[in-house]
Protein backbone atom coordinates (compact mmCIF):
# COMPACT_ATOMS: atom_id res chain seq x y z
CA UNK A 1 0.00 0.00 0.00
CA UNK A 2 1.36 3.39 -1.01
CA UNK A 3 0.21 6.52 0.81
CA UNK A 4 0.76 9.93 -0.80
CA UNK A 5 0.27 13.48 0.44
CA UNK A 6 -0.08 16.69 -1.55
CA UNK A 7 0.58 20.12 -0.06
CA UNK A 8 0.24 23.60 -1.57
CA UNK A 9 2.14 26.00 0.65
CA UNK A 10 2.89 29.70 0.91
CA UNK A 11 4.85 31.42 3.68
CA UNK A 12 4.71 28.62 6.28
CA UNK A 13 8.37 28.59 7.37
CA UNK A 14 7.33 28.37 11.01
CA UNK A 15 5.69 24.95 10.58
CA UNK A 16 6.32 23.24 7.22
CA UNK A 17 9.43 21.26 8.26
CA UNK A 18 7.70 19.90 11.37
CA UNK A 19 4.62 19.06 9.30
CA UNK A 20 6.67 17.08 6.77
CA UNK A 21 8.66 15.31 9.50
CA UNK A 22 5.45 14.37 11.31
CA UNK A 23 3.83 12.77 8.27
CA UNK A 24 7.06 11.07 7.22
CA UNK A 25 7.14 9.45 10.67
CA UNK A 26 3.48 8.49 10.18
CA UNK A 27 4.42 6.47 7.12
CA UNK A 28 3.52 8.74 4.21
CA UNK A 29 5.47 7.31 1.25
CA UNK A 30 5.31 10.20 -1.23
CA UNK A 31 5.06 13.97 -0.81
CA UNK A 32 4.19 16.25 -3.72
CA UNK A 33 4.60 19.88 -2.64
CA UNK A 34 3.87 23.04 -4.61
CA UNK A 35 5.43 26.24 -3.30
CA UNK A 36 3.13 29.15 -4.07
CA UNK A 37 5.72 31.93 -4.27
CA UNK A 38 6.81 31.98 -0.63
CA UNK A 39 9.06 34.83 0.53
CA UNK A 40 9.62 33.91 4.21
CA UNK A 41 12.15 31.09 3.83
CA UNK A 42 9.65 28.33 3.07
CA UNK A 43 11.09 27.84 -0.42
CA UNK A 44 14.59 27.24 0.92
CA UNK A 45 13.31 24.71 3.47
CA UNK A 46 11.46 22.81 0.75
CA UNK A 47 14.49 22.88 -1.54
CA UNK A 48 16.53 21.12 1.15
CA UNK A 49 13.91 18.38 1.44
CA UNK A 50 13.82 18.06 -2.36
CA UNK A 51 17.63 17.83 -2.54
CA UNK A 52 17.47 14.93 -0.09
CA UNK A 53 14.89 13.19 -2.30
CA UNK A 54 12.17 13.43 0.35
CA UNK A 55 9.64 15.47 -1.65
CA UNK A 56 8.64 16.17 -5.24
CA UNK A 57 8.89 19.98 -5.23
CA UNK A 58 7.06 22.19 -7.71
CA UNK A 59 6.68 25.93 -8.06
CA UNK A 60 3.62 28.02 -8.89
CA UNK A 61 4.18 31.70 -8.07
CA UNK A 62 0.73 32.87 -9.24
CA UNK A 63 -1.37 34.33 -6.43
CA UNK A 64 -4.98 33.98 -7.61
CA UNK A 65 -6.22 31.37 -5.13
CA UNK A 66 -5.84 28.64 -7.75
CA UNK A 67 -5.61 25.89 -5.14
CA UNK A 68 -8.21 23.58 -6.69
CA UNK A 69 -6.51 23.04 -10.09
CA UNK A 70 -3.02 22.87 -8.58
CA UNK A 71 -3.97 20.33 -5.92
CA UNK A 72 -6.04 18.37 -8.43
CA UNK A 73 -2.98 17.96 -10.66
CA UNK A 74 -0.81 16.89 -7.74
CA UNK A 75 -3.46 14.40 -6.61
CA UNK A 76 -3.66 12.88 -10.09
CA UNK A 77 0.13 12.68 -10.32
CA UNK A 78 0.19 10.90 -6.96
CA UNK A 79 -1.51 8.02 -8.74
CA UNK A 80 -0.14 8.21 -12.31
CA UNK A 81 3.51 8.86 -11.33
CA UNK A 82 3.80 7.25 -7.91
CA UNK A 83 1.07 4.59 -7.87
CA UNK A 84 -0.59 5.90 -4.71
CA UNK A 85 -3.36 3.74 -3.29
CA UNK A 86 -4.58 6.53 -1.00
CA UNK A 87 -4.04 10.30 -1.30
CA UNK A 88 -4.23 12.92 1.44
CA UNK A 89 -4.50 16.55 0.31
CA UNK A 90 -3.30 18.64 3.25
CA UNK A 91 -2.46 22.19 4.27
CA UNK A 92 0.81 23.07 5.98
CA UNK A 93 -0.94 23.64 9.33
CA UNK A 94 -2.71 20.26 9.35
CA UNK A 95 -1.44 17.15 11.15
CA UNK A 96 -3.22 13.90 10.25
CA UNK A 97 -3.26 11.24 12.95
CA UNK A 98 -5.07 8.01 13.78
CA UNK A 99 -7.41 8.48 16.71
CA UNK A 100 -5.77 5.34 18.10
CA UNK A 101 -2.33 6.83 18.80
CA UNK A 102 -0.72 3.37 18.95
CA UNK A 103 -1.10 3.14 15.17
CA UNK A 104 0.46 5.13 12.31
CA UNK A 105 -1.38 6.55 9.34
CA UNK A 106 0.21 3.97 7.08
CA UNK A 107 -0.95 1.12 9.31
CA UNK A 108 -4.49 2.47 9.35
CA UNK A 109 -4.72 3.04 5.60
CA UNK A 110 -3.47 -0.49 5.01
CA UNK A 111 -6.68 -1.72 6.65
CA UNK A 112 -9.15 0.72 5.06
CA UNK A 113 -10.92 -0.81 2.04
CA UNK A 114 -10.31 1.05 -1.20
CA UNK A 115 -13.94 0.38 -2.03
CA UNK A 116 -14.73 3.39 0.19
CA UNK A 117 -13.31 5.56 -2.67
CA UNK A 118 -13.20 8.61 -0.41
CA UNK A 119 -14.21 9.70 3.08
CA UNK A 120 -14.20 12.78 5.26
CA UNK A 121 -11.76 13.32 8.12
CA UNK A 122 -12.83 15.63 10.98
CA UNK A 123 -10.60 18.64 11.68
CA UNK A 124 -9.96 19.80 15.25
CA UNK A 125 -8.47 23.22 15.96
CA UNK A 126 -5.74 23.39 18.60
CA UNK A 127 -5.81 26.56 20.63
CA UNK A 128 -4.16 28.16 23.63
CA UNK A 129 -2.51 31.43 24.55
CA UNK A 130 -1.76 34.09 21.89
CA UNK A 131 1.85 35.00 21.05
CA UNK A 132 3.69 37.56 18.96
CA UNK A 133 5.69 34.89 17.11
CA UNK A 134 6.40 31.16 17.25
CA UNK A 135 5.10 27.82 16.02
CA UNK A 136 3.32 27.19 19.31
CA UNK A 137 3.48 23.41 19.74
CA UNK A 138 3.96 23.80 23.50
CA UNK A 139 1.37 26.56 23.75
CA UNK A 140 -1.47 25.45 21.46
CA UNK A 141 -2.32 22.22 23.24
CA UNK A 142 -6.09 22.44 23.77
CA UNK A 143 -8.61 20.74 21.52
CA UNK A 144 -11.25 23.33 20.71
CA UNK A 145 -14.72 21.85 21.17
CA UNK A 146 -16.42 25.07 22.22
CA UNK A 147 -20.11 25.47 21.50
CA UNK A 148 -21.36 27.60 18.62
CA UNK A 149 -22.31 30.38 21.04
CA UNK A 150 -18.85 30.30 22.60
CA UNK A 151 -17.20 30.42 19.18
CA UNK A 152 -19.32 33.40 18.18
CA UNK A 153 -18.18 35.27 21.28
CA UNK A 154 -14.57 34.50 20.31
CA UNK A 155 -15.08 35.85 16.81
CA UNK A 156 -14.99 32.41 15.19
CA UNK A 157 -17.81 31.53 12.82
CA UNK A 158 -17.67 27.75 13.08
CA UNK A 159 -15.47 24.74 13.61
CA UNK A 160 -13.40 23.79 10.55
CA UNK A 161 -14.85 21.83 7.65
CA UNK A 162 -13.71 18.18 7.40
CA UNK A 163 -11.03 17.21 4.86
CA UNK A 164 -11.61 14.62 2.13
CA UNK A 165 -9.13 11.80 1.45
CA UNK A 166 -9.47 9.52 -1.57
CA UNK A 167 -8.05 6.56 -3.41
CA UNK A 168 -5.49 7.12 -6.15
CA UNK A 169 -7.22 8.10 -9.39
CA UNK A 170 -6.06 9.53 -12.74
CA UNK A 171 -9.12 11.78 -13.07
CA UNK A 172 -9.80 12.91 -9.49
CA UNK A 173 -10.97 16.50 -8.93
CA UNK A 174 -10.17 18.21 -5.63
CA UNK A 175 -12.48 21.08 -4.72
CA UNK A 176 -11.25 24.39 -3.29
CA UNK A 177 -9.97 23.88 0.26
CA UNK A 178 -9.45 20.09 0.04
CA UNK A 179 -12.86 19.57 1.62
CA UNK A 180 -14.55 17.73 -1.25
CA UNK A 181 -13.50 15.45 -4.10
CA UNK A 182 -15.21 14.10 -7.20
CA UNK A 183 -15.27 10.50 -5.94
CA UNK A 184 -18.42 9.99 -3.88
CA UNK A 185 -17.78 8.24 -0.57
CA UNK A 186 -18.93 4.65 -0.30
CA UNK A 187 -18.15 4.26 3.39
CA UNK A 188 -16.14 5.50 6.36
CA UNK A 189 -13.55 3.78 8.57
CA UNK A 190 -14.80 2.07 11.74
CA UNK A 191 -13.88 3.67 15.10
CA UNK A 192 -10.74 1.56 15.52
CA UNK A 193 -9.41 2.95 12.20
CA UNK A 194 -10.68 6.51 12.63
CA UNK A 195 -8.46 9.42 11.54
CA UNK A 196 -8.51 13.05 12.60
CA UNK A 197 -6.67 16.26 11.75
CA UNK A 198 -5.10 18.50 14.37
CA UNK A 199 -5.15 22.01 12.94
CA UNK A 200 -3.08 25.03 14.03
CA UNK A 201 -4.56 27.96 12.07
CA UNK A 202 -3.68 30.82 14.46
CA UNK A 203 -0.14 30.09 15.62
CA UNK A 204 1.11 33.62 16.21
CA UNK A 205 0.25 37.21 15.45
CA UNK A 206 3.07 37.42 12.89
CA UNK A 207 1.93 34.29 11.08
CA UNK A 208 -1.77 35.12 11.22
CA UNK A 209 -1.42 38.72 10.08
CA UNK A 210 0.55 37.56 7.05
CA UNK A 211 -1.93 34.75 6.35
CA UNK A 212 -4.88 37.13 6.42
CA UNK A 213 -3.14 39.59 4.11
CA UNK A 214 -1.98 37.12 1.45
CA UNK A 215 -5.28 35.21 1.48
CA UNK A 216 -7.31 38.39 1.20
CA UNK A 217 -5.24 39.71 -1.67
CA UNK A 218 -5.49 36.37 -3.48
CA UNK A 219 -9.28 36.35 -3.24
CA UNK A 220 -9.40 39.99 -4.35
CA UNK A 221 -7.40 39.10 -7.46
CA UNK A 222 -9.78 36.26 -8.33
CA UNK A 223 -13.35 37.51 -7.77
CA UNK A 224 -14.80 34.40 -9.41
CA UNK A 225 -14.02 32.45 -6.22
CA UNK A 226 -16.11 32.56 -3.08
CA UNK A 227 -14.57 31.66 0.30
CA UNK A 228 -15.93 28.67 2.22
CA UNK A 229 -18.87 29.50 4.53
CA UNK A 230 -16.55 28.77 7.48
CA UNK A 231 -13.79 31.00 6.11
CA UNK A 232 -12.81 33.84 8.46
CA UNK A 233 -10.17 35.39 6.23
CA UNK A 234 -12.15 38.00 4.31
CA UNK A 235 -13.74 39.49 7.41
CA UNK A 236 -10.32 39.58 9.06
CA UNK A 237 -8.83 41.05 5.88
CA UNK A 238 -11.23 43.98 6.16
CA UNK A 239 -10.19 44.40 9.81
CA UNK A 240 -6.51 44.27 8.83
CA UNK A 241 -6.97 47.01 6.24
CA UNK A 242 -8.77 49.07 8.87
CA UNK A 243 -5.90 48.55 11.35
CA UNK A 244 -8.18 46.70 13.78
CA UNK A 245 -7.16 43.03 13.48
CA UNK A 246 -4.90 42.55 16.53
CA UNK A 247 -7.62 42.61 19.24
CA UNK A 248 -9.60 40.08 17.19
CA UNK A 249 -6.54 37.83 17.14
CA UNK A 250 -6.42 38.04 20.94
CA UNK A 251 -10.17 37.49 21.24
CA UNK A 252 -9.91 34.26 19.25
CA UNK A 253 -7.80 32.64 21.98
CA UNK A 254 -9.36 31.44 25.25
CA UNK A 255 -8.53 33.23 28.47
CA UNK A 256 -6.99 31.32 31.40
CA UNK A 257 -10.42 31.31 33.04
CA UNK A 258 -11.98 29.84 29.91
CA UNK A 259 -9.29 27.17 29.71
CA UNK A 260 -9.98 26.22 33.32
CA UNK A 261 -13.73 26.04 32.70
CA UNK A 262 -13.21 24.19 29.41
CA UNK A 263 -11.26 21.49 31.19
CA UNK A 264 -14.27 20.98 33.45
CA UNK A 265 -17.01 20.97 30.80
CA UNK A 266 -14.96 19.21 28.10
CA UNK A 267 -14.93 22.07 25.57
CA UNK A 268 -11.16 22.71 25.87
CA UNK A 269 -9.29 19.47 26.51
CA UNK A 270 -5.52 19.28 26.65
CA UNK A 271 -3.80 17.19 23.96
CA UNK A 272 0.02 17.16 23.98
CA UNK A 273 0.55 14.71 21.12
CA UNK A 274 2.28 17.27 18.86
CA UNK A 275 4.11 18.97 21.72
CA UNK A 276 5.53 15.63 22.86
CA UNK A 277 6.60 14.48 19.40
CA UNK A 278 7.76 17.64 17.60
CA UNK A 279 10.22 20.47 18.11
CA UNK A 280 8.91 23.89 17.18
CA UNK A 281 10.90 25.36 14.27
CA UNK A 282 10.28 28.87 15.61
CA UNK A 283 10.35 29.46 19.39
CA UNK A 284 7.53 31.42 20.98
CA UNK A 285 7.96 35.15 21.54
CA UNK A 286 5.43 36.96 23.70
CA UNK A 287 4.08 40.48 23.36
CA UNK A 288 5.43 43.12 25.71
CA UNK A 289 3.35 43.54 28.86
CA UNK A 290 1.79 46.83 27.81
CA UNK A 291 0.65 45.51 24.44
CA UNK A 292 -0.69 42.29 25.92
CA UNK A 293 -2.60 44.15 28.64
CA UNK A 294 -4.08 46.66 26.19
CA UNK A 295 -5.11 44.06 23.61
CA UNK A 296 -6.60 41.73 26.20
CA UNK A 297 -8.67 44.63 27.53
CA UNK A 298 -9.71 45.53 23.98
CA UNK A 299 -10.67 41.95 23.15
CA UNK A 300 -12.65 41.64 26.38
CA UNK A 301 -14.53 44.81 25.42
CA UNK A 302 -15.28 43.24 22.03
CA UNK A 303 -16.56 40.10 23.71
CA UNK A 304 -18.72 42.16 26.07
CA UNK A 305 -20.13 44.04 23.10
CA UNK A 306 -20.96 40.74 21.41
CA UNK A 307 -22.70 39.49 24.55
CA UNK A 308 -24.80 42.66 24.78
CA UNK A 309 -25.62 42.52 21.09
CA UNK A 310 -26.64 38.87 21.44
CA UNK A 311 -28.87 39.80 24.36
CA UNK A 312 -30.47 42.59 22.35
CA UNK A 313 -31.04 40.24 19.44
CA UNK A 314 -32.48 37.59 21.76
CA UNK A 315 -34.70 40.17 23.45
CA UNK A 316 -35.90 41.45 20.10
CA UNK A 317 -36.55 37.90 18.96
CA UNK A 318 -38.60 37.21 22.08
CA UNK A 319 -40.57 40.42 21.49
CA UNK A 320 -41.23 39.35 17.90
CA UNK A 321 -42.30 35.90 19.07
CA UNK A 322 -44.69 37.44 21.60
CA UNK A 323 -46.12 39.79 18.97
CA UNK A 324 -46.50 36.91 16.55
CA UNK A 325 -48.26 34.86 19.21
CA UNK A 326 -50.65 37.75 19.88
CA UNK A 327 -51.34 38.10 16.17
CA UNK A 328 -51.90 34.36 15.91
CA UNK A 329 -54.35 34.43 18.86
CA UNK A 330 -56.19 37.38 17.32
CA UNK A 331 -56.42 35.61 13.97
CA UNK A 332 -57.64 32.45 15.71
CA UNK A 333 -60.34 34.42 17.50
CA UNK A 334 -61.41 36.09 14.27
CA UNK A 335 -61.47 32.74 12.51
CA UNK A 336 -63.60 31.26 15.29
CA UNK A 337 -66.02 34.19 14.98
CA UNK A 338 -66.26 33.79 11.22
CA UNK A 339 -66.74 30.05 11.53
CA UNK A 340 -69.48 30.64 14.14
CA UNK A 341 -71.22 33.13 11.88
CA UNK A 342 -70.90 30.71 8.96
CA UNK A 343 -72.40 27.91 11.06
CA UNK A 344 -75.29 30.16 12.10
CA UNK A 345 -75.88 31.14 8.52
CA UNK A 346 -75.89 27.52 7.46
CA UNK A 347 -78.31 26.76 10.29
CA UNK A 348 -80.69 29.55 9.18
CA UNK A 349 -80.51 28.32 5.62
CA UNK A 350 -81.35 24.79 6.76
CA UNK A 351 -84.31 26.10 8.76
CA UNK A 352 -85.57 28.13 5.83
CA UNK A 353 -85.17 25.19 3.48
CA UNK A 354 -87.06 22.97 5.93
CA UNK A 355 -89.88 25.52 6.19
CA UNK A 356 -90.20 25.73 2.43
CA UNK A 357 -90.31 21.94 2.16
CA UNK A 358 -93.00 21.79 4.88
CA UNK A 359 -95.13 24.37 3.04
CA UNK A 360 -94.86 22.42 -0.20
CA UNK A 361 -95.96 19.23 1.59
CA UNK A 362 -98.95 20.97 3.11
CA UNK A 363 -100.00 22.32 -0.29
CA UNK A 364 -100.03 18.82 -1.70
TrEMBL record:
Keywords: Transferase
Pfam families found in the cross-reference section: Glyco_tranf_2_4
InterPro entries: Nucleotide-diphossugar_trans (IPR029044)
Any GO MF annotation of the entry: transferase activity
Taxonomy, superkingdom: Bacteria
Gene3D superfamilies (alphabetical): Spore Coat Polysaccharide Biosynthesis Protein SpsA, Chain A
Stated name of the protein: Glycosyl transferase family 2
Amino acid sequence: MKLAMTIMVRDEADIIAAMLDHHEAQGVDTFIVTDNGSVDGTTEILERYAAEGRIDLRHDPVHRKQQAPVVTQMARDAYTRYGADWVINADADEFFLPVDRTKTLHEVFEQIPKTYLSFLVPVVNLTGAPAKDGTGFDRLVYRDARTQDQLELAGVRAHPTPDAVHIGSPDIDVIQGNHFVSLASQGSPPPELAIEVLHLPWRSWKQYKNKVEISGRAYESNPELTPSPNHHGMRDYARLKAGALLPYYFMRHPTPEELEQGAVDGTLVRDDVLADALTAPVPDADFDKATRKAQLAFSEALRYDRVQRAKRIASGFEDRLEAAAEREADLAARLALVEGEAAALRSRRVVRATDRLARLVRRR
